[in-house]
User: Fold this.
Amino acid sequence: MPLAPEISLHLAGDEVGLFDLTGGEFHSDQPPPYWAFVWAGGQALARYVLDHPDAVRGRGVLDLAAGSGVAAIAAAKAGAAHVTAADVDPAAAGAIRRNATANGVVVAVGSDIQPADVVLAGDAFYSASVAQQMTALLRDQARRGARVLVGDPGRGYFPERLFDRLAEYVVPVPTALEETETLLTGVYEMRVTLRSG
Assistant:
């Protein structure tokens, strides 16, 4: 993975687009294979966690909309006490397990969203409906006392007003996915005022 070479992932090739793996078609009964790619927000979040292990060390971590599991794997490598990766796509579970095994770390996989000490979400604001659901989930976790960290490359539905930026990275991305070679991507923390409100 370009931004975090410490992590090895089983992914689609750089020349493959999101719908190339579905025969070029969108099927409403089956989510696109987001898990087959490492998105800019996930890469930035993984890099941040690896560079700031105190953010997760010794804590319970939940990676929401985990996709390939890159942020969860970074948390496990950085010394989290336990890590759970959750994704609505059942196919993502297999990808996360394969990628965790490839990196020699343990990541639990599930769809149940339990309270955690630290909640991670990489590139999870890519549509209006998903952003609304994700914002509600993250606010709930923050109110329960979780530290919420998000990686986002400026997707149009990211509610930046709820977050403080911690870091910024120029992330190499496949042009087949993003129509550019790099994306300026921020890592953000949900504001503490939301935790008690």
About this structure: The two ends are 38 Å apart (CA to CA).
